Amino acid sequence: MKSRFLIAVAAAALISTSAFAASSPHWTYEGAEGPAHWADLAKNFEVCEAGHEQSPVDLTHAVKAEPADIMFHWNKDAHWTVVNNGHTIQANTDDGGTIDLDGKSYVLRQFHFHTPSEHAIDGKKAPMEAHFVHQAEDGTLAVVGAMIEPGGENDLFRAVMDKAPPKAGEEVKVGAADAATMLPDTQHFFRYEGSLTTPPCSETVVWTVMKEPIKVSEASIKEFEAIYAANARPLQPIGRRFILEK
After folding, report:
1. Can you tell me where the transmembrane regions are (predicted)?
2. Residue 19: what pLDDT?
3. How far apart are CA 110 and CA 96, in angstroms?
4. What is the pLDDT of residue 14?
5. Which of 117, 111, 88 is nearest to 28 (CA)?
6. Catalytic option among 37, 79, 87, 188
7. Which residue ranges of the chain lie beneath pLDDT 50?
8. What are the structural domains of the chain?
9. Which of 35, 79, 152, 169 is a good FRET partner for 103, with 20 to 30 A between their CA atoms?
């Protein structure tokens, strides 16, 4: 019963695109409502402190293995809208396509950004990180993370940043785009079992974090930082979990 409740909470958190939903307690990335206090803000946030499989983590001391590749079936012409949800800039879609992972299908629902990166690789963080969030029929999630660094050009990232609403609650259309253009060309990655990195921190997530970063323009990164200068949860203990590396 508890696991079904946590999955339902995670699904609700995923689907919500507004930071102003009446049922969502206010939380931030600093001060009295910041990460150190999330567990105190609501009963269903308690796992943010009590959980043992929290994210993000430092991807270090990984075990060389052969975790299953992700089979991407994303829609190259998916239609996207961009919303400022009060915590990040998020692109939402209703026709994003799917991925297959370990025999399970997940639907691409949205992608969003954090600065600096939430995960670290061998103790080092990138300027930003993108999270591509997928949901299975049972409510469980598969998130693909990609580090973002300056030194290149990415048309979709630039389009999202150029249309990113500066005020929370605003939403604009981006149009049709292929989200795969914001992923590295190769599947070298880390995988582990973890959680949402935002309240309610539900431990229902299979994480795949790509090793290679995507390169974007410094100007586009600064556009995001002008809206959200810091929206990354601190690193969490890995505990007894294994990080698999491919």
Report:
1. none
2. 34
3. 8
4. 54
5. 88
6. 87
7. 1-9, 12, 15-22
8. 38-245 (3.10.200.10)
9. 79
